[in-house]
Write a structure and sequence with these properties.
This protein is an all-alpha fold. It is 80% helix and 0% strand. α1 packs antiparallel against α4 and α2 runs antiparallel to α3. It comes from Meishania litoralis.
Amino acid sequence: MLTSFRITAVLEGISYLALFAVSMPLKYLAEIPEPNKYIGYAHGFLFIAYIILAIVFWMEKKWNIKRLAVLIIASLLPFGTFYVDRRYLEPLKS
């Protein structure tokens, strides 16, 4: 479960950054909307997967509600899922 959640967290973070740093400028500055559609679909899927896995992982670890809030808020912030991976998930792998 930990490995799946970590991979999803990193992929969700990458898709979020790709959406803002690559596809949004292409759509609005270069008037090329196609990449935004596909990156948006990928990000949407990864976002939902991240939220579901965060809730399942939170219940499995029996963490407090504050930790769940951190996991969910991190998905809304650029680089947030990378922070969660480094701060909360990486120490669990040992």
